[in-house]
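--- STAGE predict ---
source: upstream dedup step, 1 unique chain passed
mode: sequence only
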Amino acid sequence: MSSFTYNGTKRTTPVVENLADRPVDDPTVRLGDSEMERAATSVARQRADRCGAVYMLTWAGSKIPRKAVINGWEVIWTQHGLVTAEKDGRKDRIGTYTREAEWAGDEGDLHRMKVYVDPKFCG
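--- STAGE serialize ---
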């Protein structure tokens, strides 16, 4: 597993920051199709507004933030702007995401993703 330094500490697991106490940036979803982007962005904004649960994930390695835990759900897959996670053997889509950084950092393996959690998976 890849390691990275975050706030002066060497890490091998994803950092999950709750951004609820910070102002929410415009949750724009980029899918390569303007009509789909508008629809997905609208859903992301509604979820962020209702839930207040927006998380920034930071990790090194593959594009999927494996072992990241959000509200008790472990992220197992991210694709097409959707976050799939597992809890107690149950798999579900818990929210949407936007990539903030991809293949960045000194080693070229650092990633950052903002996750907007569906209200039914909040707290």
